[in-house]
Amino acid sequence: MPANARARWPHLLARVKPKDRNELVILVSGIVVLLLLVIVSKLASEVLSGETQQFDKQILVALRDPANPSQPIGPNWMLGVAFDITALGSPTVLTLTVLAVGGFLLLQGMWRTALFVSLASLGGWFLNSALKQLFQRPRPDVVPHLRDVMSLSFPSGHAMTSAVVYLTLGALTMRIAERRLTKFYCMAVAVLATVLVGATRIYLGVHYPTDVIAGWLIGLSWALLCWIVERSLERRAGLKRERVEAG
User: Where are the chain's structural domains?
Assistant: First the structure.
């Protein structure tokens, strides 16, 4: 390698090398988003080609009584619990949650953060509607539905929008929380709520497992992308500065 070319390498590396830990986290998060999108693209391709149909049917059938497909496995109270949990991912509950959190942030003087939460949530809902229309996958007819549904199946709207809203709020509360254990608790609750909502959609027979998996992955990608944007903006006029102004 010529001497002048070797001399350029340190300067080139200095330009692309993250300047601090915040930039490194953003860079790694961006790579994760790209990997998630690749996985989603592969999954969507297999769904459209019908390669996942056998897997989807086996899971749905396994969750029902072989003698009575309209009866889910498990104790009688589990169905009521599934109805309650799945409601946490409904448009009504998620909208009320976003409005409640947004109102709290506005009262705290954190209008930038309130706007971020609102835009991230609205963007997730619009993205979900667009993807449903794009893929046009009908709802599963393998087992009787235990919940009335009207929209298309892929991706699962409950799973995706729950991931968007709850993971965005989880990331937000992690930034506000001071203690490490509290940060872990905030994100753990957000992840648990997201997982449970998606699982109930399969249990109720209104979504194929791949619908829910895609919803989780896309929702996570969107929430992570919004988080990257928020972290980038924070370097100029973000959460920490806003907290000082609000305080």
Answer: 20-246
Give residue-wise pLDDT tens across range 192-237: 999 999 999 999 999 999 999 999 999 999 999 988 887 777 665 5
What is each CA distance from 133 to 44, 152, 221, in whole angstroms? Answer: 13, 8, 19
Name the nearest CA neighbour of 47 among 55, 35, 59, 58. 55
**β-pair type (64-65, 68-72):** antiparallel
d(C-alpha 199, C-alpha 194), whole Å:
9
Could you tell me how many residues make up the chain?
Answer: 247
Per-residue pLDDT reduced to its tens digit, 159-173: 999 999 999 999 888
Q: Which residues contact 174 (CB under 8 A, 6 or more apart)?
A: 183, 186, 187
* Coil vs helix vs strand at 68: strand
> What does pTM read for this prediction?
0.85
Report d(CA 50, CA 15) in Å as an integer: 46
**Residue 65 backbone dihedrals phi, psi, to 5 degrees:** -70, 120
Write the burial class of residue 172 (CB in 10 Å: 0-12 exposed, 13-18 middle, 19+ buried): buried
Per residue in 75-96, pLDDT (tens digit) is 999 999 999 999 999 999 999 9
**What would the two tokens of residue 169 be?**
């709020």
Structure token digits, residue 40: 């989603």
Fill in the DSSP letter of residue 66: T
Which ranges in the chain belong to alpha helices (H)?
3-16, 21-49, 53-62, 76-86, 91-107, 111-135, 157-176, 180-203, 209-237, 239-246
